Amino acid sequence: MSAQHLESHPQWSTRLAFILASAGSAVGLGNIWKFPYIMGDNGGGAFVLIYLACLLIVATPILISEVMLGRRSRSNPISGMAKLSRQAGVSPAWQLIGWMGVLTGFLILSYYSVVMGWALAYVEKAANGAFVGADADTVEGIFTSLVSNPGTLLFWHTVAMLMTITVVARGVRGGLELATRIMMPLLIVILVLLFGYNIGTSGFAPAMEFMFAPDFSRVTGETVLVALGHAFFTLSLGMGAIMVYGSYMPANASIVTAGFWIIVLDTAIALLAGMVIFPIVFSNGMSPEQGAGLVFQTLPLALGAMEWGYWLAIVLFILVSIAAWTSAISLVEPAVSYLYERFGVRRLYSAIGAGVATWTLGVFSALSFNLIDEVTLFGKTFFGIMEFLTANILLPAGGMLIALFAAWRLRRADSAEELGLGGGAYHLWWWLAAVVAPAGVALVFLNGLGLLG
Ligand code: PHE
Fold this sequence. Notes:
Helix content is 79%, strand content 0%. The protein is an all-alpha fold and 453 residues long. Helix 3 runs antiparallel to helix 11. Phenylalanine (PHE) is lined by residues 25-26, 28-31, 108, 233-234, 236, 239, 241, 327, 330-331.
């Protein structure tokens, strides 16, 4: 490991900057696009409950562990895991956590960038007034024609990737800190406004019932697997993003407090997004089971009927794009920081290299909505397979390894010091990370995969 590069390992300017950047990573398409549609596909209320349980019991201790490993190592995830295993006197094979993370980030970003491209395309459509006064059929038609056009999809996929690379190339404080500081509060304000508008509509009561009255008859092994996977996905957990962000965290900040805020913000925004989208679905007699297109068909419909809808639609899709953007950055940051710190490759070139590779893989996801939509495996398209493999397999597996390493491999004195915890609180974290969270992941895997196969 090259010491001369480690000296330049950056840091956030304040604790708040860490929380906002991590919340910026956590809050993204997962909250606004994915959570509502997988909730819709998995029957609503029961899914929400299972998801919240996964968040609390499994994801929280792992989030804390991941930030801790990052800050303890003060390094990129690959070199960092090598360093920590060396210090703890355990097998260097734990570096696998770092390598898996870089691979997972690459796979996620490849399709994430395609969906971010949809959001960008919708900014343009909103600006052209495409949604003003549009009815459900028109809005559906707009979405269908977007995804069935390979050229347009590839164009926006390219724009999304360029935006991502640009910020990553500029470094940690360069743009990311500033962007998240302004955009996160703005996003919340817009969502609350939309929520307020929905309360009076006829779809509000059925939406609340759909989201919060659990119907367990619809729960299968796959439901639980999807809920667990989403808990990882939405918190950006298990692939080194939170680890690398933690490595930039000031030494005096409390990991547990920061973790608490990240989880609260992320969960509140996801639930709020659901409470904005489902009333629209029910008010307009639409089906909640529309899959990946859900948000892109409901929001324009509601906004198109509102007085200030033209402007709100533009602002809203800009914000969805930005939420996606601040997440996309964190998906390549582990790879870029590794290339930079390990080999001294300048950020600009690291970012371009990672970006080109990711873009290329993403082309298949974009085309899986049109030219190659017939090519499927287990009934899923290329896009669907990427989504399933990363969120439901790789992230939980990565998270499990992180928890096992943090609890069983790191010296307890070290983890207690880094977490700033003692006594009962420390033991609670330890038990959750050492036993409960890994067992939870293992059970869900066995259950979900058993029923799938
Ligand atoms: N958490 C992001 C979202 O909810 C996605 C993401 C996953 C980002 C993993 C980074 C790492 O949209």
